[in-house]
Amino acid sequence: MTTITIATRVSDLALWQAYHIKDRVEAQYPEVEVILNKIVSNGDKVLDKPLALIGGKGHFTKELEDEMLAGNADMAVHSLKDVPTYIPEGLELLSVTQRQDQSDVLLSHKYSSLENLPKGAVVGTTSLRRRMQLLQKRPDLQVKDLRGNVNTRLRKLEEGQYDAIILAYIGLFRLDLLKDIPFTQKLSLDMMIPPMGQAALGIEIVQGKDKLLEIAEFLKDEDTFICTQIERDFISSIGAGCSAPVACNAVKNADKITFRVMLGFADGTNVMQETIVIDVKDSQGLGITIAKKMIDNGALELLKNAETEAFKEQMPQRL
User: Which pLDDT value is given to residue 242?
Assistant: First the structure.
C-alpha cells in the first residue's frame, strides 16, 4: 500500500475539496491510501481586515507549500483562484480539475435581485473585483467589507448586517448552503466576470515522484487547463497583485474560447475592459497578448493608482 499525504486548509470548503480528490484517487488507485494534513493558513487566521491588506500573495497556499517542501505532504489541493502564478522551486502545478459553475451569486433575505436592491442598499463582499463591477453597474449602492468563513458570512446576512452579499456559487453549492437563502440570483459571466481560476481545483505536487505525476495527469482536465492557463498568463503578464481589482475569465465552447478581462478602480471608475472570441487552435499565448494590449493602453499605471486608492483610508502610509 502506497500512502500519499494531501495538504489542505481546514475550512469546510477546503476539506470538501480535499476529500473529493482523496475519493477520486483512491477509487482509481486501489493500492493508494490518501491521508490529509490539515493546516490553518494565514488567510484563515487574519479575519479582521481585508485580504488585500494582509500583505503579499498566497494567503491560502504558503503554509501548504511549506509542508510539502518540508516533506510533510506530497500534494496540495487548492482553490485555483488562490494560487499565485509563481510556484516555489521543488513544486509543480501540473494539474487542474474540471471546472464547474464559475458564477458569482447574489444572496439576500430581502431582495430578489441586483436590479431590485434599493438605492443605498448595503452589499457585502471582500473582493475588490466584485466591488469594482458592482459599483460600475450600481454606483448608488454601499459596498462594505465581508470577512469570515462561509457560514459566518451567511450568518451576518441573516442578522441583517447586509441587505445582500455576493459569494462564489460553487462553494455554496458544494456545501449545500443555498437552500436556506430566501433569494438567490446567479450573476452571468457578462454581469460579473470571475477571478482567475474560479471553480477549478489546482493540484500541486512535489517534483520528482512518478506516482504523483501519474495521479496529477489522471486528475487533469485538458479544456480547463487551457482556459485557466490563459487566465494565469494574463495575471502574471500584467502583474496584478491582490490589492488591484482585476477580473479575467476564459471559457471554451466547442472550438472557440471567449476571454473576458476587466480592471479598474474599486469604486467602479477608470475601467478597462476587453472581450475576445478566438479559435482554440489560435489561443496559445492569448493571455499574454491581451495583457500586452492593455499595458500599451495604460493598464500598469491604472493598476498602480487603483492599488493606492483601494484602501487609502485603512492605509494612510500609502498616501
Answer: 62
58: left (phi over 0), alpha (psi -120 to 50) or beta: left
Question: Is 0.85 topped by the overall pTM?
Answer: yes
The rounded distance, in Å, linking the Cα atoms of 183 and 73 is: 41
The total number of residues shown for the chain amounts to 319
Helix axes 299-310, 222-238, angle to 10 degrees: 80
The answer to whether residues 246 and 262 touch, using CB atoms and an 8 Å cutoff, is: yes
So what CATH class is 104-187? alpha beta
Domain 2-98+200-220 belongs to what architecture? 3-Layer(aba) Sandwich (3.40)
Cβ(236)–Cβ(197) under 8 Å? Answer: no
| Catalytic pick among 82, 104, 163, 233 | 82
Q: Where in the chain are the domains?
A: 2-98+200-220, 104-187, 238-311
Q: Same fold for the domain at 2-98+200-220 and the one at 238-311?
A: no
pLDDT in tens, 129-170: 999 999 999 999 999 999 888 999 999 999 999 999 999 999
Q: How far apart are CA 209 and CA 186, in angstroms?
A: 41
The CA-atom distances, in angstroms, between 21 and each of 4, 9, 110, 215 are 12, 14, 37, 10
Active site (annotated) includes residue 82: yes
What is the C-alpha to C-alpha distance for residues 17 and 169, in angstroms, rounded to an integer?
15
- The class (CATH top level) of 238-311 is alpha beta
